[in-house]
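Researcher: We're reviewing a set of sequences before deciding which ones to prioritize for further study. For each one, I'd like a predicted 3D structure that I can look through quickly. This is Glycolate oxidase iron-sulfur subunit. If possible, include the structure in token form so it fits the rest of the review sheet.
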Amino acid sequence: MTTASAPARLRGFSGRDAPSYDAIRKCVHCGFCLPSCPTYRVTWRERSSPRGRIWLMKSVAEGRLDLLDPVFAEEMQLCLNCRACEAVCPSGVHYGEILEASRAQLVQHREQSWRERLFRLAGFRILLGDMRRFRAANALLRWYQRSPLRPLVRRSGVLRLLGLEQAEALLPAIADRFVVADGRFVPAQGERRGRVALFTGCVMSTAYAHVHEATIRVLTRNGFDVVLVSGQQCCGALHVHSGEPELGRRLARQNIEALESPYLDAIIVNAAGCGAMLKEYPALLRQDHDYAERARQLAGKVRDVLEFLVERGLTAQPGPLPWTVTYQEPCHLAHAQRITQQPRVLLRTIPQLRLVEMAESALCCGSAGIYNLLQPDMASTLLARKLDNALATGADVIVSANPGCMLQLEAGLRARGVRLPVLHLVEVLDRAYAAAEGRPADILAAVAD
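Model: Here's the predicted structure for Glycolate oxidase iron-sulfur subunit, in token form for your review sheet.
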């Protein structure tokens, strides 16, 4: 992501994925970003704000700060990459892009511990690098979660010894049946309005397979054929956010090969982070002559399921749900994709459902991909604030639209001993359609064990 501008001054950065000096210089240090930044609002440190981090990037680019300075590394990792700053920036700074490029520089030049090297190899390359391996690992994880071994392992202290106690507690319950991109075709109900592909992703296909199933039911009920196109891989968001852009590019190329088709009206995504990544494939592959234009065409078809349903309109009338709900906005839906009103529009189409807005609904919950594993203290602080705001509404259900947020909220509620369901918005619609058919839509059936 280099530019021809001021090449001699990029002494601290090098290589293909160096942050653009022009992009760094777009920041005029106005401070509009400060109130929107979660880490700044917790620490009240200038360096922990978008403006402060960009100043650090500029200092490295101009050779005034060592790339390996501990403060630089600390702040690049402490940032959630929630991109709330982008939504309010009057200068149009692409903060997420330069942050990810800065992280890539750290991965390239900084010495890594054996634990980090193992994590990157096992997580990014082996498991998330191929969905067959990922599903096999999830099948083993499902066996572990349901076996007598789990309570024994928890009591033994081995998880604490290995530093895996928090990670194990955050694990989602793996589904009985995975939703696999195997080429299946699910026909529309009633009058056919088009054909779409469902992006299955990684965690959504194994831990939140029920959300995929609800998505398929809602889409077909509204007149759309759904295809589970084979050959799909992880979207690559975790790789790119964690300073592994080349791995992200490899996955992007595989997804383009799988999903590009003139016979698809849209590519539907129900995970905010995946949707944002797919829409940003053109930026990721801008220097790839073979894929840049193909990435642009694919991205033009990508739609979050909530965005798509509002664009096309609901032809099937939802039934009544006498629930009080509150909506937690996923960062990569609200800030990266600027999808804020569509979820609320859909909730308001459901008879008898009451939406109560929580305070700071767009403030990050602390999940941020794997941030809650890497920065547990900040993640816990933000989660506590989010849960306090959600519970203050008196809602029966917390609604969101991203697996990371749902996982974080569910874990936080379990830790507090609160039995409150967390549902994806498309699940709420699916239950409203069940109600329209006279079938029960039990709230408590959604509470995680």
